[in-house]
Amino acid sequence: MDKFDQRKMDKFNQGYVNSFAIGQGYGDTFVRVPMASHNNDIRIVILGKTGTGKSATGNSILDKKEFECSPGGSISTWSCLKRETKRFEKNVVVIDTPGLQEVKKPMHAIRSEIQKSIEMAYPISGIAHPGPNVFLLCLKMGRFTAEDETLFQECLIIFGEEMLPFTIVVFTHEDTWESDMEYSGRDPKHSEYMQSLPLFALEFIGKCRSHICFNNRKTGLDMDLQVQLLFKQIEDAIVLNSGNVYTNEILQKVVSREQFKNNISYWYTNGKKMLNSVLAVGNVFLFWRNFKR
Ligand SMILES: Nc1nc2c(ncn2[C@@H]2O[C@H](COP(=O)(O)OP(=O)(O)OP(=O)(O)O)[C@@H](O)[C@H]2O)c(=O)[nH]1
Ligand SMILES: [Mg+2]
Question: Which residue intervals define the domain AIG1-type G in the entry (predicted)?
Fold first, then answer.
């Protein structure tokens, strides 16, 4: 590892406790992963850019094809959708959301639609505090672009930094990445993938609760085990967050803070324009007075 890589990994490790190392091996046998039992409800909001596999991940968690998935360029999820199931003795609520940074609709409309997911995450039992226990932020395993940097910023605009302890990054398309690596004659090592990520991504992911690689094409016991590992990570996040959830009150604070920031920048920009106009009029007046003399 050269100096630059070490610096990136240090930045990454500065974040919250990453309870599971990326790509932790688990062999072929079906192992029941022990889960810290805090509450029997798990409420999940799935976020990510269009086509990163949000709906597919939701279906893998639910073990049913509840959310529509679409290959290619077409967008399949336009509004938040909630589905529930009981899996591995947990009451699971999954809320699928439209793609962040979707360009075919106004940004403010997408943002407020995604924010609706918080109110939708009320508990099945009706006794716990409403709101999601975790956000699963889907990122497609592969190259990161400058667009991905704005994706992280967009997440923070919508849910604030307050979302980070509740966020688990899910690297989807693990299978495609592995076959791409094999095709180019390289060993698909997850640790090397992490090192290859740009600093902005490592910084953001390092601040999240944890991360996991995910392959939505797995089936049978392989898929069961993968989902159990994800549930274990979610359970760890719940315990580390002392059972707290991302509430609507947190969201309202974030929304008013964003509005305040927007108002300030509006008045700053317009105030500067007004001042420039006043100065311009003053200059014209002085010029006219001097001219008359
Ligand atoms: N090979 C592979 N394909 C995947 C994986 N996850 C999702 N896909 C495929 O990627 C495509 C897009 O997945 P979706 O789940 O529809 O993505 P989305 O993020 O919900 O997209 P929108 O709803 O349009 O925002 C589909 O064809 C999925 O089958 C994965 O882990 N591996
Ligand atoms: Mg979708």
Answer: 39-255
Tokens of residue 226, six digits: 């993968």
> SS3 string of 197-223?
CCHHHHHHHHHCCEEEECCCCCCHHHH
**Cα-Cα-Cα-Cα dihedral sign, residues 227, 233, 236, 238:** negative
Measured distance between the N- and C-terminal CA atoms of the chain, rounded to whole angstroms: 76
Report the 10 Å Cβ neighbour count for 289: 9
CB 161 within 8 A of CB 253: no
Residue to substitute in 46, 52, 60, 61 for testing ligand 1 pocket (most ligand atoms within 8 angstroms of CB)? 52
Q: Is the CB of 115 under 6 A from ligand 1?
A: no
Beta strand residue intervals within the chain, DSSP E: 41-48, 81-87, 90-96, 134-140, 167-172, 210-213
115-148 pLDDT per residue, tens: 999 999 876 665 556 899 999 999 999 988 888 8
CA separation for the pair 165, 256 (Å, rounded): 21
* CA 69 to ligand 1 centroid distance, Å: 6
Q: Are 253 and 138 in contact (CB under 8 A)?
A: no
> DSSP assignment of 3-54, as one string?
HHHHHHHHHHHTSS---S-TT----SS--PPP---S-SEEEEEEEEBTTSSH
